[in-house]
């Protein structure tokens, strides 16, 4: 197939079953399709062995400018490093569902490609929650323009463990306990995050970040986003939020509970937002006949949107909320 497509510039191969030991085929792709600039792979194993200094597999595709690797179960940090060394022109890099990669590997990628990389997506990677993903991208935080991360608050909640313990002793329900951790947060404060060098905390500024894409589980709050390390984004113009999960297993929200859209007012140039709840399973699927009311969860996700300034009108007009 590759021999028959010598002019190929973009290729997407996303299969239903895992294909093993694919580095040989990918090396053939590189030799037969010299114009290839964009590559997306799904469910492929062995895309890069990364076991010695000699590049192999994807790492030989030196002309790539965009690379997406999805559900590669055996991709390791050494493979990531080999890919970043072998593909020095990458401006866009995505990893999704790669369970073995860690903060160390992503930090090396960001360091090696710090002069070219402007767009990154990290999703469904077991060892990369919100905080570790942002820490790994520190080498390019002053040049990154587009970013997707999952809102997994594990390490953020550790910093609020004392408040969480207090809320638990008070016997508050789940949503109220989560809120108890963040309700005293001053959104005008310059938050700080751990810099990963063992010398305490350092402020973070994402100078060129224009578009931020987020995945968040149904029932979780958006408020910890700034505390995780995304508080200072002076040119951020667009936010895309995808909510996924089963609302039926969550405690039913009640006023003044809200998702936390008001926390986005810390982004002064925000002018476009998409809130996508279409894959969140709501009360309508279990309600008695004639009582398909989704309003409690709709209020939960939309409360606070009027507090987002200074572009309130534009935000309300461009928000694509779907349940």
UniProtKB/TrEMBL annotation:
SUPFAM superfamilies: RNI-like
Gene3D superfamilies noted in UniProt: Ribonuclease Inhibitor
Coiled coil (residue ranges): none
One GO process term, biological-process aspect: SCF-dependent proteasomal ubiquitin-dependent protein catabolic process
Listed GO CC annotations: nucleus; SCF ubiquitin ligase complex
Lineage top rank: taxon: Eukaryota
Protein name: Uncharacterized protein
Source organism of this protein record: Salix koriyanagi
């Amino acid at each position: 197939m590759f021999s028959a497509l010598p002019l190929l510039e973009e290729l997407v191969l996303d299969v239903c079953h895992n294909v093993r030991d694919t580095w040989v085929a990918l090396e053939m792709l590189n030799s037969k399709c010299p114009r290839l600039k964009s590559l997306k792979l799904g469910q492929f194993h062995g895309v890069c062995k990364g076991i010695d200094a000699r590049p192999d597999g994807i790492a030989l595709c030196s002309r790539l400018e965009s690379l997406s690797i999805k559900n590669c179960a055996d991709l390791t940090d050494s493979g990531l490093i080999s890919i970043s060394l072998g593909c020095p022109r990458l401006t866009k890099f995505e990893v999704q569902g790669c369970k073995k990669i860690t903060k160390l590997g992503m930090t090396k990628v960001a360091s090696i490609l710090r002069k070219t990389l402007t767009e990154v997506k990290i999703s469904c990677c077991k060892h990369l929650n919100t905080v570790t993903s942002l820490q790994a991208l520190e080498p390019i935080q002053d040049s990154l323009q587009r970013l997707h991360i999952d809102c997994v608050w594990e390490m953020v909640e550790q910093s609020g463990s004392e408040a969480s313990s207090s809320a638990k002793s008070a016997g508050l329900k789940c949503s109220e306990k989560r809120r108890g951790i963040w309700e005293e947060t001053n959104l005008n404060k310059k938050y700080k995050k751990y810099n990963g060098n063992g010398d305490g905390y350092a402020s973070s500024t994402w100078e060129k970040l224009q578009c931020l894409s987020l995945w968040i589980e149904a029932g979780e709050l958006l408020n910890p986003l700034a505390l995780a390390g995304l508080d200072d984004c002076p040119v951020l113009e667009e936010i895309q939020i995808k909510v996924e999960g089963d609302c039926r297993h969550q405690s039913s929200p009640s006023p003044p509970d809200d998702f936390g859209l008001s926390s986005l007012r810390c982004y002064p140039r925000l002018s476009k937002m998409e809130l996508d709840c279409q894959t969140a399973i709501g009360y309508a699927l279990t309600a008695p006949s004639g009582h398909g009311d989704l309003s409690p969860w709709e209020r939960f996700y939309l409360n606070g949107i009027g507090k987002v300034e200074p572009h309130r009108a534009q935000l309300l007009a461009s928000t694509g909320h779907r349940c």
